[in-house]
Amino acid sequence: MILEGLDNLTMEQVICFKFETPKNQTDYETLIVGLQLGKELGVKRLNCESDSQLVTGQVKGEYQVKEPFL
């Protein structure tokens, strides 16, 4: 995960899950960790980008996920 801030400040965070997850769940877990980190840093405005069409589609309200673990 890469967080970019003002004045070209960049923070890279590696996330290692100690449990097996399908690719889609990993994408969701990473998004959640990024949102939590932004909250801890006191971020007021956050722009999330992902290469997962499923995650971005659900966040935008375009998709409805059927698997309960997602």
Structure explained in plain terms:
The protein is mainly alpha-helical and 70 residues long. It has one domain (2-59). It contains two helices and two strands; from the N terminus they run E-E-H-H. The protein has helices at residues 23-40, 53-59; strands spanning 2-4, 10-12. The protein has a two-stranded antiparallel sheet with strand order 1-2. Strand 1 and strand 2 (10-12) form a beta hairpin. The two termini are 19 Å apart. The mean pLDDT is 82.
Task: Identify the notable features of this structure and list them briefly.
70 residues, mainly alpha, 2 helices
Give the topology, please.
Blueprint: E1 2-4, E2 10-12, H1 23-40, H2 53-59
Antiparallel strand pairs: 1-2
Strand order of the largest sheet: 1-2
Strand content: 5-15%
- Our count of domains comes out at 1
How far is the N terminus from the C terminus? 19 Å
Helix content class: 25-40%
Radius of gyration: 13 Å
Task: Give a short overview.
This protein has 70 residues and is mainly alpha-helical. The chain is built from 2 helices and 2 strands. Strands 1-2 form a two-stranded antiparallel sheet.
